[in-house]
Design brief:
By secondary structure, the chain is of the alpha/beta class. The chain is built from 18 helices and eleven strands. The structure holds uridine-5'-diphosphate-glucuronic acid. The site of uridine-5'-diphosphate-glucuronic acid has 21 residues, from helix 7.
Amino acid sequence: MCIRDRIMPIYEIGLEELVARNVKAERLSFTTSYKDALKEAEYVFICVGTPSDVDGQADLRYVRMAAESIADAMDHPIIIINKSTVPVGTGDWVADIIRRRRPDVPEFAVVSCPEFLREGSAIADFMSPDRTVLGSTDREAAEKVAQLHLPLRSSIMITDLRTAEMIKYASNAFLATKISFINEIANVCEALGADVKEVAYGMGLDKRIGRHFLDAGLGWGGSCFPKDVKALAYMAETEGRHPHLLHAVMDINADQRDAPVRKVKEMLDGKVKGKVIGLMGLAFKPNTDDMRDAPSIDIARRLLREGAKVRAYDPVAMEVARNILPEVEMTGSAYDMAKGADALILITEWNEFKHLDLGRIKTLMNQPILMDGRNVYDPAAVRQLGFEYRAIGRGYDGEGVE
Ligand code: UGA
C-alpha cells in the first residue's frame, strides 16, 4: 500500500482527489529518501505518529527516527516544524538529538505547530483552522512559519516551544473533558427523567459554555483523545502532580462503553446468549474508517463474550474492522444486518443511519429492539413505529422513566 500509487492510507473525504490534483500539478511528490525530500527545502514538517506506550506515555520512537534522518540528510539551513502531538519538552529534545548526531550540522530551528484537525473533516479543518499556534525559542523562525500560514487566514499565536506543545494536550484533554462531563450528566438525566440532548442545547446557548462537543453518547475513541489524555496524566504524574480530573475523565469514558450492552441485555430480559445483535457502525466516528480505540471493539467483544451472535454494518470501516473483530459477521447493508436480528445498537452516527427506513428495518427484525448509542433518532417517532427503544441520557423519552 503506497500513497505514491494514490492509495490513501486512511479514508478521508476528498483526500484522494486533493492528492491526485496536486501530484498532477507537480506541487506534490512522495519519496522515502530524506535526502531527496530535504533538497532545497526551507522547511521540513515532522508529522509522525506518537502512539501510547504500555504505561500511557507517548512513544517517541518515530519522532526520534525522523530527527535522526533529518540530521543525516541536512546540507543547508532549515526550519523544522513539528506537527506531531508530542510531550512537553520534545522540541528541545529533537534539537538535542540533531546537534549530538551531527555536531557540524547546518543552522536550524525547531518550531512547534500543533495540528488541530479532526478525522472525517480533515481537509476543511486544515484549510480553515480556528487558530495556528507556533512555539519556538527562535522568534524569527516562528515568524517565518507564521508567514507560511498566512493563506489559511487563522488567528496566529506565537509563544515558546513548551507552551505550544502544552496547548495541544490541554485542548484535547479539555474536549475529552467536555464529552465525559456531558456523559456524566446523561447518566444523571436518565435517573431523574431529564433529556440530555435538550440539556446540552440549553447549556450551549451560553456563549461561555458553547454547544460543541456536548453530544452524549458512547464516549470518545480514536487515535487522539485516548492517547493524549493518558499521556498528559503521565506527564503530570512524572512531575509528582495528581491529575484527578484527567483520571475521572478517563474512568467516565470507560464506563460509557458498558451502557449499550447493559441496556440491550435489560431489553432482552437479561439474556444476550444466542441472540443476534447488529452493530450499526464500527468506526470511532463517522466519515472515517479509523478503528483505533473505537467503542465498537469493546461493545462487540463484550457481546461475544456473553454468547451473542454479532453482526455489523459500517459504510466504510468493515474492511479494517474485519481483522480486529474476526468473529463479527460483516453485512452488505443495514437492512441485511437487521434480517432476523434480536436487537440493533447504533454505535456510529453515519448520515446513512439517520435516513434509514426504520419501518422496513422493524419488519426485518426478529424483535424490534433498538439501542441508540448516539441519540440520533426521535424517541417518540421510533416508539410509534413499534420499537422498544433506549438511548443515552434521555430520561423521559429515551429511557421510559415516565
Ligand atoms: C480530535 C480533536 O477534535 C482535534 O482537534 C485534534 O486535532 C485531533 O483529535 C488530534 O489530536 O489529532 P478526532 O479524534 O479526529 O479529533 O475526532 P473528534 O471529532 O474530536 O472526535 C473524537 C471522539 O469524541 C469520537 O469518538 C467522537 O465520537 C467523540 N465525540 C465527539 C463525542 O462523543 N461527543 C461529542 O460531542 C464530540
